[in-house]
Give the backbone structure.
Amino acid sequence: MMTHLNKTAKIIDGKVFAASIRQQVSDHVKLLNSEHQIIPGLAVVLVGGDPASQVYVRNKAKQTREVGMRSFEHKLDESVSESTLLDLIVKLNQDPEVHGILVQLPLPDHIDSAKVIDMIAVEKDVDGFHVVNVGRLASGLDALTPCTPLGCLLMLKDLHGDLSGKEAVIVGRSNIVGKPMAQLLLRNHCSVTVVHSRSQNIKEICQRADILVAAVGRAEMVKADWVKAGATVIDVGINRIENNNVKPRLVGDVDFASVQPIAGAITPVPGGVGPMTIACLLANTVTACCRIHDLAAPDGLGA
Ligand SMILES: NC(=O)C1=CN([C@@H]2O[C@H](COP(=O)(O)OP(=O)(O)OC[C@H]3O[C@@H](n4cnc5c(N)ncnc54)[C@H](OP(=O)(O)O)[C@@H]3O)[C@@H](O)[C@H]2O)C=CC1
Ligand SMILES: Nc1nc(=O)c2c([nH]1)NC[C@@H]1CN(c3ccc(C(=O)N[C@@H](CCC(=O)O)C(=O)O)cc3)C=[N+]21
Ligand SMILES: [Mg+2]
């Protein structure tokens, strides 16, 4: 590692970390195949043609195949009826080649996403969004755990080891990121504060954090004077800054340039949390496959 005279935060390399997780997934897939003739399969359902979602779905499918798993992609028209989508979920639930099901969110307004998620078989819910998995996580039981917070937790544990007693502040309370992140940090013995759009004194609350997780969806909202010196900053945000004709620029929810000199460690956007999310999706698919077949799941890839 390089040392600098002027203090600059360590940049956490999510790409390298994600590659090491994919390697572990790939090793376990080989084992399942050679010892049990099982190939884990992941089905991804995309409704509509949102360009960003199409990129994610393509990346997921490619990486799924690269680790030796089967990938099933289902692209449905924006106007698809809720009942057609629910019928597809039932088919995937029954398909023995499918061990993981992910329905890309958000869904169009005419579809009730809670209804769709709750139709997914609990043991195939690799996003960890089904109420049973949410409840199991909150109750401290084995659960399929949402991929983005799981990726954040794995990076934090790699960096810090034991997280006991750390002050964690999460900006954002969505079901996808903020809430499950809070559960995972609580489970790992942090003191957890969650702030959101109705919170007061957000800046002052953030200043207390040893671990600051930003999952807001507001470009560069977290500024240098929100961050305690030496804090670990995890930037979940993916914001596309449109630029006439030119390729859109991706920025996080953290003002990286100004925060980096203050923080002890920080994740970049792109190349931080995003690649970890996909790696954890693959890990969850192997875990789901092992549980469905009553086999030992890989070590060290859970919460
Ligand atoms: N890297 C990755 O793998 C992933 C990245 N993302 C990105 O992370 C970001 C958050 O995603 P997601 O959780 O789904 O977003 P949501 O829009 O579902 O939730 C945003 C949260 O931020 C809160 N919020 C909004 N504005 C403010 C504000 N001004 N001050 C304080 N809190 C505020 C909202 O509060 P309230 O509840 O009161 O509305 C809400 O709780 C997005 O940029 C998304 O693209 C998401 C998933 C995965
Ligand atoms: N059911 C469901 N599960 C999800 O996990 C889910 C979802 N719906 N809807 C959308 C959000 C967003 N999300 C991302 C995944 C990977 C990157 C990612 O790989 N990002 C790259 C950059 C990719 C790019 O260039 O656009 C990076 O940060 O380096 C980003 C965002 C998962 N989500
Ligand atoms: Mg909806």
In short: The chain has two domains: 37-122, 146-275. Confidence is low (pLDDT under 50) at residues 1-5.
